[in-house]
Every structure is written in C-alpha cells, then in structure tokens.
Q: What sequence folds into this?
C-alpha cells in the first residue's frame, strides 16, 4: 500500500491530521491522539 493511500484521522487535542502506523494495526479504531504528548496533555491540561 502506498503512503498516500493510508487511512487518516484528526487528533482530538491538536487538530492535526495523522496517518495509520503499523503499531496501531490492532487498535486503529481506538486511536484518538497523534502522539503520546497529545495523549498526556489531554489527561492533564483540558
């Protein structure tokens, strides 16, 4: 599969789009944040 054909989501914290990664293959439906930093910020910040 080409990189341009990978699924894309928008991060719930920063609003930036991010693409599917192999490490998320089993839990892609549950992924909400583009990075660990955004996930931590969501728990602490807002």
A:
């Amino acid at each position: 599969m080409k990189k341009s054909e990978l699924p894309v989501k928008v991060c719930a914290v920063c609003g930036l789009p991010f693409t599917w990664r192999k490490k998320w293959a089993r839990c892609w439906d549950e992924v909400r944040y583009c990075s660990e930093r955004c996930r931590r910020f969501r728990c602490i910040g807002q």
Observations:
- The mean pLDDT is 89.
- Residues 21 and 28 are 9 Å apart (CA to CA).
- Residues 36-44 form the longest helix (9 residues).
